[in-house]
């Protein structure tokens, strides 16, 4: 206790400059440390997540290019198959050697020409059933005839290549290729005579591994620590910018268990300095997997630089704080005390105060802002009070519009008359419509309901009104299916329909029509109530829609309530418009957001 009192007395004797320094030191140092650690962690996660997204995007682009190569190669095989069949159809039946040589030259020329159209395919070889070999590259008869003993034609046949190309694994071989040093991906296809169904031979189209490696090289050249591999279903690397890795097993030590995981996957593999970010995406067409390995050591270098920069900035801020702390008492403390005094009065509930500070520095700005905030609070409180009053008025008007006792009594009288006249079915339908109408009207809970439910409620109301006034109205409803789930305020259409009946149709002198129609308006929905009644003059329209100007008491509390509730629920861009022409009718259109939603309380 004595030590505590001693420290308190010692601190009390210190000048305010030293007090500020002693208080600010921990307030600056600890937040800076926390900021450095937190920003470092966030930066680290951001770098890794950004790298993941970049690799995913690059991998999708690579797979798209690979798929394009595969499809182009299959297309080239189909064209070659057509040309081979046509050449056999046009082949001379003469057994002379010169005719055979001519056919041989035509076949190889056609294979070469077809490959020009598809540069992704490197070479093509056709082996007919008699053992003759035709190639798109300069003939290498002694070497290419080895295909006859390789079992490849038989393998293609066993794979079920009856008019369908079958892909064989990537391999390096010294026959049936233009360059024995480069592994190839081969598409095999059996060629048939379309008329007789007899087999003409087997077509092989080769794609060099370097075609795929060039794509991987371009995508991986942005970073020396980022490598792409294509791995086949047996776990071999079938394409890589590093030629020494070709056709070798994918190193399980780099990413153990990675190939067994279900693609797509992006995760940290390994530990310590050897950890990497591995991304795996499958290419099911060839049972391949595209693997990307990014060394975390490179990513950590950026993170370490961020740490260093953060702590350097923190040290600079600490130094500046120490230098400027002595000036705080003279420049800030006294004016702040005056502002604080005014703030304390506001906290106690007195908002009729202002700060007397008038300096032109930041403290003066704080005082000016404080005074402005107090004034805005006073104005806001006044506006809230007025708004609550208006809202209460709208609620009372809504309750009054909902209950409508005279509508209930008149409808019950109608039901009584219908029963008295023996019109039981009409009385039953009217009773059901009245029950459904008041079930929605008096329900609690959601104030926003789907448009389809609001339409059902309006239809019940119109059915009742049609029974009560059969010579006054008929109605049509046209609501697109895609707008049925758009949310609208409950009982927003009924006041508009009621207004159309009582002020548009009843005074017309003949039966009128009410049409309820909805349409898309950009991203919003527009629901219109249209009648062909007596219409209104521009002056009458202005009087009915004076709520849009916020002046005076509205002529129609029902329309006013609909307008204000739309504004309340959806905001300023939405509301209600009225267009009318004397003798032609009236259109009242409400605009609401076009997004679908769930019922919810407001």
TrEMBL record:
This is Sensor histidine kinase. Residues 330-382 form the HAMP domain. It comes from the Bacteria. It comes from Paenibacillus rhizophilus. GO terms for molecular function: phosphorelay sensor kinase activity. Keywords: Cell membrane, Kinase, Membrane, Phosphoprotein, Transferase, Transmembrane, Transmembrane helix. Gene3D superfamilies: 6.10.340.10, Histidine kinase-like ATPase, C-terminal domain. Its main location: membrane. It is found in: Cell membrane. GO terms for cellular component: plasma membrane. The chain crosses the membrane at residues 20-40. It is a multi-pass membrane protein. InterPro entries: Bact_2-comp_sensor_kinase (IPR050640), HAMP_dom (IPR003660), HATPase_C_sf (IPR036890), HATPase_dom (IPR003594), Sig_transdc_His_kin_internal (IPR010559). It holds the Pfam family HATPase_c.
């Amino acid at each position: 206790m004595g030590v505590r009192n001693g420290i308190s007395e010692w601190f009390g004797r210190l000048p305010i400059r030293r007090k500020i320094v002693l208080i600010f030191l921990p307030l600056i140092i600890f937040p800076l440390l926390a900021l450095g650690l937190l920003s470092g962690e966030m930066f680290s996660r951001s770098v890794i997540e950004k790298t993941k997204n970049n690799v995913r995007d690059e991998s999708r682009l690579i797979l798209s290019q690979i798929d394009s190569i595969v499809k182009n190669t299959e297309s080239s095989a189909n064209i070659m198959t057509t040309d081979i069949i046509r050449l056999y159809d046009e082949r001379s039946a003469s057994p002379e050697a010169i005719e055979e040589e001519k056919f041989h030259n035509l076949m190889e020329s056609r294979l070469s020409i077809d490959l020009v159209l598809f540069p992704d395919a490197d070479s093509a070889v056709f082996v007919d059933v008699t053992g003759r070999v035709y190639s798109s590259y300069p003939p290498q008869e002694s070497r290419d005839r080895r295909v006859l003993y390789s079992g490849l034609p038989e393998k293609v046949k066993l794979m079920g290549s009856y008019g369908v190309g079958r892909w064989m694994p990537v391999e390096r071989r010294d026959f049936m290729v233009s360059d024995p040093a480069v592994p190839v991906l081969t598409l095999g296809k059996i060629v048939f005579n379309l008329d007789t169904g007899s087999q003409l031979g087997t077509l092989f189209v080769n794609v060099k591994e370097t075609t795929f490696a060039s794509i991987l090289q371009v995508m991986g050249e942005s970073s020396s620590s980022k490598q792409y591999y294509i791995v086949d279903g047996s776990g071999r690397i079938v394409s890589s910018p590093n030629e020494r890795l070709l056709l070798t097993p994918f190193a399980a030590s780099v990413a153990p268990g990675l190939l067994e995981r279900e693609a797509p996957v992006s995760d940290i593999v390994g530990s310590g300095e050897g950890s990497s970010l591995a991304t795996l995406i499958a290419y099911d067409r060839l049972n391949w997997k595209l693997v990307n390995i990014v060394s975390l050591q490179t990513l950590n270098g950026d993170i370490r630089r961020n740490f260093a920069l953060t702590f350097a900035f923190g040290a600079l801020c600490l130094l500046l704080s120490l230098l400027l702390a002595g000036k705080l008492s003279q420049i800030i403390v006294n004016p702040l005390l005056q502002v604080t005094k005014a703030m304390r009065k506001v906290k106690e509930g007195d908002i009729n105060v202002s700060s007397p500070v008038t300096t032109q520095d930041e403290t003066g700005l704080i005082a000016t802002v404080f005074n402005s905030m107090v004034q805005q609070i006073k104005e806001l409180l006044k506006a809230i009070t007025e708004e609550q009053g208006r809202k209460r008025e709208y609620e009372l008007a809504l309750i009054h519009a909902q209950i409508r006792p005279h509508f209930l009594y008149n409808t019950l009288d109608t039901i009584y008359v219908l029963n008295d006249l023996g019109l039981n079915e009409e009385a039953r339908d009217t009773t059901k419509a009245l029950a459904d109408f008041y079930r929605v009207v008096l329900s609690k809970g959601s104030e926003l309901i789907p448009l389809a439910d609001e339409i059902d409620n309006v239809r019940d109301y119109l059915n009742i009104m049609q029974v009560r006034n059969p010579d006054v109205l008929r109605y049509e409803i046209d609501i697109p299916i895609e707008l049925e789930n758009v949310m609208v305020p409950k009982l927003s259409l009924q006041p508009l329909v009621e207004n159309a009946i009582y002020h548009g149709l009843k005074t017309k002198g003949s039966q009128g029509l009410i049409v309820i129609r909805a349409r898309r308006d950009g991203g919003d929905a527009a629901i219109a109530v249209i009648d062909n009644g007596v219409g209104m003059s521009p002056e009458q329209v202005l009087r009915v829609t004076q709520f849009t100007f916020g002046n005076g008491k509205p002529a129609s509390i029902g329309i006013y309530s609909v307008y204000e509730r739309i504004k309340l629920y959806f905001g300023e861009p939405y509301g209600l418009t009225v267009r009318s022409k004397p003798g032609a009718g009236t259109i009242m259109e409400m605009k609401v957001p076009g997004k679908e939603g769930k019922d919810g309380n407001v």
